[in-house]
Amino acid sequence: MEPQIDILSDDITLLAAPKRRTLLPWWVKIFCWIFMIFGCIAAVGIVFGILGYNFQLSLYGLDSSDPFSLIGGLLMLTFLLKGVAAFALWTEKDWAITLGVADAVLGIVVCGLVMFAAPFLNIGINFNLRLELALLIPYLLWLNRTKPLWQQSNRP
């Protein structure tokens, strides 16, 4: 007797799984919108930078008024990364959690360097406690906890 193949179990599992957007807590939804807006502003900022305009950028204790300086360029890329990660979470992309983890780890590393390494390099940055860590660490923990559910959940 041949073993029976259950062709409906995968389809039923997909139908029973929650939609990915319902996995996002309210605070992640708020930050998704904030960083999607900042990502769009950063894209526009690149155009204004090419046209020769300067504007103030600040994130993770780094700041610059020139979008094409080393720090300014890194900040622009960081805002773009955050915008793409937020958009991917909001639109329920398969790779959203992976990009979010990379974004959170990058933010934690930069905050750590600004807090602990920069004061010893005597580059004009004083030691300060970065409050971004109070949001980045729970965000990273949430991403790691949500990853298995995200992978098996149903997209719209």
How would you characterize this protein structure?
- The protein has one domain.
- The protein contains 5 helices and 2 strands.
- The chain has helices at residues 9-16, 26-50, 70-90, 96-121, 133-152, and strands at residues 57-59, 62-64.
- It has a two-stranded antiparallel sheet.
- The protein starts with 8 loop residues before the first helix and ends with a helix.
- The mean pLDDT is 83.
Write the layout of secondary structure elements.
Blueprint: H1 9-16, H2 26-50, E1 57-59, E2 62-64, H3 70-90, H4 96-121, H5 133-152
Antiparallel strand pairs: 1-2
Catalogue the unreliable spans: none
User: Termini distance?
Assistant: 39 Å
Strand content bin? under 5%
Main sheet summary: 2 strands, antiparallel
Instruction: Tell me the number of strands.
Output: 2
The average pLDDT value, as a whole number, equals 83
Strand order of the largest sheet: 1-2
Gyration radius over CA: 20 Å
